[in-house]
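Title: Prediction job returns without error message
Component: structure pipeline
Severity: low
Priority: P3
Assignee: unassigned

Description:
Job completed but the reporter wants confirmation the result is attached to the right record. Sequence as submitted:
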Amino acid sequence: MLGAVRDLPVLTVGDGSRFLKQGGAIGFLLENNRVRFDISINALQRSGLTASSKLLRVARSVEGGVQ
């Protein structure tokens, strides 16, 4: 499904350790019984989307792009 919306302005959100590597923009995971998330700047830019600096600050990790 990620391939079908790859270049469209769609925010892709999922879970699992490989979601961002498969092209997703925001990946949720459990860490110490808390829900955390990672962000892929490259996936957001490819979709023509941006993330606020506030969202980037609370992410567990930010991959790609200028950080």
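Comment from assignee: result matches the submitted record. Helices lie at 41-46, 53-58.
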